[in-house]
Design brief:
The protein is α/β, with parallel strands linked by helices. It has three domains: 156 residues, Rossmann fold (3-Layer(aba) Sandwich); 35 residues; 110 residues, Zinc Finger, Delta Prime, domain 3 (Up-down Bundle), CATH 1.20.272. It has 14 helices and eight strands. Strands 2-3-4-5-1-6 form a six-stranded mixed β-sheet, with helices on both faces. Helix 5 links the parallel strand 4 and strand 5. Helix 7 runs parallel beside helix 9. The N and C termini lie far apart (57 Å). About 3% of the residues have low confidence.
Length: 317
């Protein structure tokens, strides 16, 4: 039997306790890596009366990526996600899902559809789901999993019962992560993951802490004049852009908080110096604004190495 992380157990219990009046249209939302998809799949397995493991494999990174919509783990269950090489869910896929929900159950029980991420539906796809959300077929359940419910049409959100997954307290997250992955720099990984433990665990398995050490060393080399912004930017271009910019943001925000609290500089502040002296509060805030702009640009930038070069040249020219 699968053991849910401690911050998900109360939510799973809440859903289980209301089985007699379980919502047929449910919107589960939280940060990526908070366990929103895991909770939805566990709840779906309970409604189907099957072991959770038959569905929760879909919550593992790299699983199910070869399918847009398909019956995975049970003939009365459909998991809908963007197809390969696509970032959105088309209206045709939603129409097939609606048809599935109107069919008779194969095993005489519930028929369940999980849409993840629901905020990947096109406008037409979302509109195609409205009537079914308002009047779901008897015995059917629809779960929408989203990280940004505000990006969903208000008409979709208003037809669902909402369940938010909060970011767990740091001590709870670290204790769970240690049990899963042993000792690591979990504070760093959680900061980069926005506090989401499952994302932090994925970063640990990708050895992101070691990458962060190399990134910090790049900045030290820039500060000392032993590396050029262009050379470092070319190396950084091979990194995952959201993770790298989140790491930079975390580094600067932490330094600003420490400066505001008059806390002594730590080893992690070392890359944020100039001429061997800590950056001023004004300089830190300007760099944080620069990183914010880079984060907003995100995937819109075709050549991130060029954006990094411009940023680093402003800082270290």
């Amino acid at each position: 039997m699968i053991q849910l992380p401690p911050w998900l157990e109360p939510l799973a219990g809440l859903l289980a306790s209301g089985s007699a009046r379980c919502p047929q249209a449910l919107l589960i939302h939280g940060a990526p890596g908070s366990g929103r998809r895991l909770l939805a799949l566990t709840h779906a397995a309970r409604l189907l009366g099957i072991p959770a493991e038959r569905l929760t494999r879909l919550a593992q990174p790299g699983t199910g990526e070869d399918a847009g919509a398909g019956m995975m783990g049970h003939p009365d269950f459909v998991f809908l996600q963007p197809p390969p090489e696509k970032s959105s869910i088309a209206v045709e896929a939603v129409r097939e899902l609606v048809d599935f929900l109107h069919l008779k159950s194969h095993q005489g029980g519930a028929r369940i559809a999980v849409i993840c991420p629901a905020d990947a539906m096109t406008t037409a796809a979302a509109n195609g789901l409205l009537k079914t959300l308002e009047e779901p077929p008897a015995g059917s359940f629809i779960m929408l999993v989203a990280s940004r419910p505000a990006s969903l049409p208000a008409t979709i959100v208003s037809r669902c019962q909402r369940l938010a997954i909060p970011t767990p307290k740091r001590d709870i997250a670290v204790a769970w992560l240690r049990a899963q992955g042993g000792e690591a720099d979990w504070d760093l990984l959680l900061d980069v993951a926005g506090g989401a433990p499952l994302q932090a665990l994925a970063l640990h398995r990708e050895d992101f802490a070691a990458q962060a050490t190399r990134l910090a060393d790049d900045i030290r080399q820039l500060e000392s004049g032993h590396a050029s912004p262009v050379t470092v930017a070319q190396r950084w271009g091979g990194h995952d852009a959201p993770l790298l910019t989140q790491w930079l943001y975390r580094l600067l925000a932490g330094a600003i908080r420490a400066r505001a609290a008059a806390a002594p500089a730590t080893a992690r502040d070392a890359p944020l110096q100039t001429g061997g002296k800590p950056l001023t509060m004004q300089a830190l805030q300007q760099r944080l604004a620069d990183v914010e702009e880079l984060r907003r640009m995100g995937s819109k930038a075709i050549r991130m190495d060029i954006q990094y070069a411009a940023l680093l040249q402003r800082w270290y020219a």
